[in-house]
Amino acid sequence: MLGARLLPWDYGVRNLFRRPSRTTLTLGGMTIVVLLVLVVVGFIRGLERSLSATGSPDVVLVYALSSGADIENSSIPGSTASLLTASVEGVRSHHGVEAVSPELYLATRINAAGMAEPGMGLVRGVTTAAPLVRGQVQLVEGAWPGPGEVMVGRLAYSKIGARQEDLSIGQALSFDGADWTISGRFAAAGSAFESEVWAPLADLQTTLKRQDLSLVAVDMDSPGRVADVDLFCRERVDLELKAVAEADYYASLQKHYRPVRLLGWIVVALVAGSGVFAGLNTMYGAVVGRVRELATLQALGFRRRAILLTLVQEATLLACAGAILACLVGLLVVDGAAVRFTMGAFALRVDSVGIAIACGVAALLGVLGALPPAAKAMRLPVVEAIKSV
Length: 389
Fold this sequence. Notes:
The chain is α+β, with helices and mostly antiparallel strands and 389 residues long. It has two domains: 9-52 and 254-387, no CATH class; 58-222, no CATH class. It contains 13 helices and 14 strands. A hairpin with a 6-residue loop joins strand 4 (100-112) and strand 5. The two termini are 30 Å apart. The mean pLDDT is 85. This is FtsX-like permease family protein. Keywords: Cell membrane, Membrane, Transmembrane, Transmembrane helix.
């Protein structure tokens, strides 16, 4: 009867506390491996969310045909917005105001208080019609910018390399030879807009001595209306315009980051693989030191399968504890951390997908890390194992 029974559940739990130093080191190693996986997955998820949240299928971007896909190099007549409003049907209207946003967009060096050198940032000149088109933008603090003022996205500090407090309301920014006062801070549902600085369009045009626009964003009442805007651009060959659905525009940009995402998943696989090997090494050391104990259990009549299951239980418990610690650190420290990239900045995202992958890696560490050393220890003859030191 004794040989048919499994070892008590609390036997494996007590074993973890009998060797606190080894248990602590193993737990620390597993936590670091799982946390690394969580950070890489958070990077990939954050980048994907930033690009996918920026484009809207109803919004059409109209910019210069000669600029290719680079809006920064686009220059279109300042009258384009009014021409579109007068010529195209289906423009969404909010309380009698049509959702057409003329914008001036540029990358420039921005200096803030506390910065030793100016950093490269993104500035968008907008009118009060911009929130009608960019529905995800919400003013979370302060007020809409007036003359000489700007409002900053919640990740703009990361893009220009400043501290978050340097871009608080009331602080000053300077770019293109002009000083600006920060009047507000906005969020945009994790989209790329959150890394931008928004200034009044007229003030920005005056500062830059420009009367043209970079683009006009139009919110149509249905995705099917995109063709109407495209037809307008094709008919007005004198303006040399191009119309692209905003969702398609950012989807095309996602293709450029596909190798980055692929590299990220490769790093996840490499970290997980190295973690399994590290776990194997650790468990080999742990099991070798318990050969006599395991042989004694066999002498008492416990089957090898029961002992093997207990060793896997111990390793899995440690891996689960490591996963919990890693997820807590990820949620408290990693989640929301800003990362700069060419289009702006995005926040690392520790979500349910990342946690599920991290827990899966932890389970692999626990099971695959314990099985080979445990199976090897079980193959030793009982008498020889009891005599071993």
